[in-house]
Amino acid sequence: MRKILSLLTRRLFWFAVFIVIQFVLLLYIVIWASFEKGYFIAFYALSIISLFAVFTRSEKPAYKMVWMFLIGIIPVFGGVLYILMANKKLGYFSRKKMQRFLTSLPDEASFPERSAEMLLEQAEPSYSHISRYITNTTGLPAWGNTECTYFYYNEEFFHDVIAEIKNAEKFIFIEYFIIGEGKWWSRILDELKKKVAEGVDVRIIYDDMGSINAVPNRYDWTLREYGIKAVAFNRVKLHINPRLNFRDHRKIFDIDGNVCYTGGLNLADEYANDEIRFGYWKDNAVKFRGAAVWNFTYMFLEMWTGVSDSADNLRDYIPTVTALSDGFVQPFGDNPFDDRCTAEDVYIQIIANAKRYVWITTPYLVPDDQMMGALKIAAESGVDVRIITPHTPDKKTVFEVSRSNYIPLLKAGVKIYEYMPGFMHSKTFIADDEAAVVGTTNIDYRSFYLHFELSVLFLSSSVINAVKEDFEKTFELSEKVDMSSVIVTNPVRRFIRYFLRLFSPAF
After folding, report:
1. How big is the CA angle at 298 (ends 295 and 300), to the nearest 5 degrees?
2. To which H or E segment does residue 101 belong?
3. Quick one: fold of 92-124+145-324?
4. Which among 241, 247, 383, 455 is most buried, taking Cβ atoms within 10 Å?
5. pTM as predicted
6. Strand partners, 415
7. pLDDT at position 257 over 80
């Protein structure tokens, strides 16, 4: 009874109920209008136009194919569904704000340190093309003069963040998928209130869907009462709309433009293992001090420009500290409104570049054909490809899809491990002791196609050794998967797996 009452009081439950009701009503209206009022041909024509639009748009093949399939099997309703759910373009006013933001970017001469692109070309010829690709597609360069600290344990991250907040003098920028009321957020919020009282500019962006069960409705209004500038990203609305799927999955905790944190961790007790839901929560985070923090500041202010009416002078937020160099560090972002998936492209290039090994952690293993092909080709070429996923799922449907993807990978020689103590949430790549990526991007369609994400490429950095050590410890706590454990003989369960796998790119 308590579980039922808890469910009935959750915003997410009622949001889902309203969306389902609207979807069913819309389906009924379209069918009624088609067969009772003779608009059958009109809806068919709309579906044909939608098919043409899907075919000609610059999208990943998997995303296009699932929409073509959906429109083809339900032609009366498919066109309507596509118009409602597949619009991936920024509105006019958002585009104008982004254009103004881009014209206000400071030139390189404004920075105390120069980007490390030329040095990287000389020091890392095997990986410089990947860094160059990131710079060309996102405008965010690689930097030296940045100190990096890798956190193996979630609790260390929270203690360190609170200590650094106390040192803030000018601004604190926070952008997270989930903020959750509880022990750790209360401690962070108390420190933020003190900083507001000292005149520090504190801004928070949190994803409304991600935090829907973690904070009260209109929590941004509560934060504003404390003097914090706060915005709920893509506020949940109780109606079907094309922006429903686009979420801000980034994690940025930026202090004075000199110190920043990112990784898989969100700001809630569950991530510090003070609230246990799926066993031990395995995650990671990285702390940056120095030049590379600019890339995070840029990403935050770009998002802030899109979700608020403020216009900032970006020269006021350039890093002011000089830090020792820890190799090359390149934070970069991804968004659903362009025609590329930068993080996936970087992953694929790292896999293709690997000569000895590629190790990966991801909570969800739902690769598209390109990623699947890259993993299989690497394994069949003799590269030691290993993937660690959770043994305890947080989403059972996605877990079924992930396990269905084990089979072709295992056949190609990819080694798959499941983390036994609980849930594996970190999103990490490492190759040949030479390159690593840590960030927020999962190997699934939502991260690649529908979310705002960020990742960090490390070359010649101590973080690479730390990541490898973390992998080696995690392998000891994981169980290697064999083919017999993932083959499903139950025909109903097998059908469910393939059905979910078929439609995963669309939603």
Report:
1. 110
2. helix 92-103
3. Endonuclease; Chain A (3.30.870)
4. 455
5. 0.91
6. 386
7. yes
